[in-house]
Amino acid sequence: MNRYETVIGLEVHAQLKTKSKIFCGCSTMFGQGPNENTCPVCCGMPGVLPVLNQKAVEFGLKMALAVECRVNDRSVFARKNYFYPDLPKGYQISQYEEPLAEHGKIRIAVDSLEKVIGITRIHMEEDAGKSIHSSTDNMSYVDLNRTGVPLLEIVSEPDIRSPAEAVAYLKSLRGILLYLEICDGNMEEGSFRCDANISLRPTGREEFGTRAEIKNLNSFRHVQKALEYEIMRQAELLDDGEAIVQETRLYDVDKGMTRSMRGKEEAHDYRYFPDPDLTPLIIDPDWVEELKKALPELPGARMQRFITQYNLPEPDAAVLTSEKELANFFEASVKAYNQPRKISNWIVGDLMSKLNDTGQRVAEISLKPDQLSCIVRMVDEGTISGKIAKTVFSEVFETGTEPEKVVKDKGLVQISDSSALETMVDQVLEAHPQEVQRFKDGQKKLMGFFVGQIMKQTKGQANPAMVNELLNRKLQ
Ligand code: ADP
Ligand code: MG
Ligand code: ZN
């Protein structure tokens, strides 16, 4: 048994995919020239007033409903005061005492074990700008394009008990945001960011230990690694009878370690107060009802449907529904050729590994759902062997050429001509008399050798079932 139990709570910042910023009409488009997307409001000029973007509220409400939060009919924007060059007003508009929504939950699964993680609150705020420190001219620059981009902050209860659960929680959350089409979920670009709070407590004790908050976690892998490191670090300190310091730590990707960045700031350091420039946000319950009714099928529900409707194992259904486009791809393939189990195997195995290798998203690939169906069908009909199907798949994935054309142009049609195969089998047996003798003496494993020889000769195109049958007959 472990000496300590891990306690983790996550704060996620999700950039909302609205066209304009949360309090002004500037574009939120990524990759523009420095400070192109700015105006007097987001630059923090005196004498201008913020106006709330209704679409941002709508997106926030959708998320709140999707994770079963209670929506507050009244929420309040507050000023969070701190000084930093990328924060032109000297405060960030956020929500503090009265957030948009509270008391939600999300289901996760680790190793098929289901668990519910509580969501403390969801609130809206504006993003800060970006400081760019140039080593070439030893200057620092500020780009305010990101200033005022709407963010949703989603705070979990300290219900998470391991790094694996933390990653599962983040994947669930990100999946929901993507299904709702309110955030693009890109961790590297920072549109889906996470701070992890972590503490240890002696197993069996109820009281939480002192926590550290880890920042700069921009991939699932980093979350996992940073938390694993932190568990080790805190356990060693506790073993030595030392106290954990409550602080903010930074994950150093290169070293795989966390290091202290600053002492933990307390809420009073920020001197929160309601923003006098904005009235309280009053939410019409009819609007909430309307949004609730219009929610799309969410990843959890879709996964359950895939399990029952297509008779898929849960882990496969989980992969397929992890992204909307992937799930759509699967369903389109099945529609073109009703072999869900086989199509699922291709997607979960071959397609996923291609996506990992190329870093592409489903929406970007040349392979079309009906092309995958076509490959699966050609195998079932005996036109190509399972092995050749892999070659065809790669070719179609890379070029988008129709699978039939690839098979035809490259002469990949399976050899199912029994007299041609028989001649080959005879030749192989004649060429390997010793192996034939050993086979007859009981070394049945040599069957694989004979099959291999024929596959080699035919570049994998011989019909394996027929080859096996011929060999069995000849070797009796
Ligand atoms: P702050 O805003 O100052 O970071 P919060 O009270 O909002 O503090 O908590 C932030 C996150 O820290 C939440 O996700 C919460 O679940 C988590 N948390 C709070 N206490 C602990 C603890 N002792 N160990 C691990 N996580 C914790
Ligand atoms: Mg915090
Ligand atoms: Zn602006």
> How many angstroms does the end-to-end distance come to?
57 Å
Q: Which ligands accompany this protein?
A: adenosine-5'-diphosphate, magnesium ion, zinc ion
Low-pLDDT runs: none
Structural class: alpha+beta
Q: In what order do the strands lie side by side in the largest sheet?
A: 2-6-7-10-1-11-12-13-14
Mean pLDDT: 93
Write down the Rg: 29 Å
Biggest pleated-sheet summary: 9 strands, mixed
Q: What percent strand?
A: 15-25%
Question: What would you note in describing this structure?
Answer:
With 476 residues, this protein is α+β, with helices and mostly antiparallel strands. It has 15 helices and 16 strands. Helices cover 40% and strands 21% of the residues. The chain has a nine-stranded mixed beta sheet with strand order 2-6-7-10-1-11-12-13-14. A three-stranded antiparallel beta sheet has the order 5-4-15, with no helix packed on it. A two-stranded antiparallel ribbon has the order 3-16. The protein has three domains: 4-290, no CATH class; 297-403, no CATH class; 418-474, Orthogonal Bundle (Arc Repressor Mutant, subunit A), CATH 1.10.10.410. Helix 2 runs antiparallel to helix 3, helix 6 (314-321) packs across helix 8 (340-358) and helix 7 crosses helix 8 (340-358). A hairpin with a 2-residue loop joins strand 6 (101-110) and strand 7 (113-126). Bound molecules: adenosine-5'-diphosphate (ADP), magnesium ion and zinc ion (ZN). Zinc ion binds at residues 21, 24, 26, 38-39, 41-42, 148.
